[in-house]
Structure formats: C-alpha cells, structure tokens
Write a structure and sequence with these properties.
This protein is about 50% helix and about 0% strand. The protein is mainly alpha-helical. It has one domain: Cytochrome Bc1 Complex, Chain D, domain 2 (Orthogonal Bundle). The protein has a two-stranded antiparallel sheet. Strand 1 and strand 2 form a beta hairpin. It starts with a helix and ends in a 10-residue tail after the last helix.
C-alpha cells in the first residue's frame, strides 16, 4: 500500500518539475574550482622579453584604460612572479573574467607563463603610488577596513607570500574592478569570493584607495 502511494507521489512530483521546473529555493550554485598553484617551472626572463611584446600594448602605457568598464590597466612592475603565473592561469582557465586576457592567455604554455612572469617581476623601477581619487579621509577609512586584507597582502600592500599579489601602488580603479569581480563571481576564488561578498561599494572604494596610496608597484613603459 505504502509503496504504491510513494510511486504515485514521485510521479506527481516529477510531473510538476517537468511543467514548472525545479524549485528555485533548491538551486545550488556551483562551487568555485580548486585554487591554482604557482607554476613550478623556472622562468626565463630573456625569453619572456619576446613573449611580453603583446603585453606592452596595454601594460606598457602608464595611462592605458580598459574601455568598458573603464579602469586603469594594472601595473606589473614589482609584482610577484608566482602571483603573475597564478593570474595568467586563471585567465587561461576562464575563472578570471576578461575576454582580451583570456584570449591572450589561452595560447600560453606553462613555460610561456613562467617566462613572462619572470620578465615582468625582474623589471627595475622606483616605487610609485597608484592613481586614486581618494582623499586623506578615504585612505584612512580604507586602512581601518583593510584588517582582513593585510593578513595576506601586508600592512603596506607587500604580500606575505609570493603567490599573492602585492597591492601597494596599484591603481584604485583596477583594485575596485578586481574586488567587484570577486564579489559578483566573475573572478572565481574560494578565499577572495567570500571575503569580497561582505564589502559594500563604499568599502571597496576605500580599501582600494588605501592600497593605491602605498608606494610600491611601478609602471613598465618601453
């Protein structure tokens, strides 16, 4: 008796799902893919010089902007090589949302990525602050709100480990874009996603202004 009722109930449920679709309350968001590790291959900076020619169309111009949405292209001078390999793998895998960078990275082998990272990380330059529209009050507010960030990215934006990015001196508009992408999932990351999800737009702008005001990263003009 109970068996026939269960069969009837299951059939009715299946029919409802077929007509109306699954209940939205039970839809599960796919978890982010596993974190990427730095590429262990030794990078050849001399070979990276040639491979980086295509990068200079954007990263070699100090005032270069991404068109839409509009933000300054990130500085690479002074960035950690291991982090650059992680970032390029993310674009290659498609877990970092940027069509141009995904297209560029899609053709790179692991050795290519290691070589490009070795080249950019070895470039000399004086520490610079990033472009920011934040005033002293906004920078101070960002410092107060960056307590969680500094555990990995350092008090002045110098990363505690080389697989994490240095943030000091990076452009505010780029940092705002990156944090917003972590928040909305366009950058899939098991650690940064949950952290960024707690930030409102104002906090993102203030944190970005704080790190931009710390002199560290530098431009890489030809």
């Amino acid at each position: 008796m109970f068996g026939s009722k269960l069969v009837s109930t299951a059939a009715a449920t299946f029919a409802l799902v077929a007509i109306f679709g699954p209940a939205t309350g039970f839809t599960q968001k796919a978890p982010p893919p596993p974190p990427l590790n730095p590429i262990a291959l030794k990078g050849d900076a001399a070979r990276g010089t040639t491979l980086a020619e295509t990068c200079y169309g954007c990263h070699g111009l100090p005032e270069s902007h991404n068109a839409y949405p509009s933000y300054l292209v990130p500085k690479l001078g002074g960035q950690n090589a291991e982090y650059i390999t992680v970032a390029l793998q993310g674009y290659r895998r498609g877990t970092r949302g940027h069509e141009t960078m995904q297209a560029q990275a899609s053709s790179l082998t692991d050795q290519d990525i290691a070589d490009v990272a070795a080249y950019f990380s070895a470039l000399d330059g004086k520490p610079e602050t990033g472009r920011t529209s934040g005033d002293a009050a906004e920078v101070a507010a960002g410092k107060a709100k960056s307590a969680t960030c500094v555990q990995c990215h350092g008090l002045e934006g110098v990363a505690a480990a080389p697989q994490w990015p240095n943030l000091g001196g990076q452009h505010e508009s780029y940092l705002v874009q990156a944090l917003t992408q972590y928040k909305d999932g366009r950058r899939a990351d098991l650690l940064m996603g949950p952290l960024a999800s707690t930030l409102d737009d104002r906090a993102i702008e203030e944190i970005a202004a704080f790190f931009a005001a710390q002199p560290l990263l530098h431009n890489t003009p030809r």
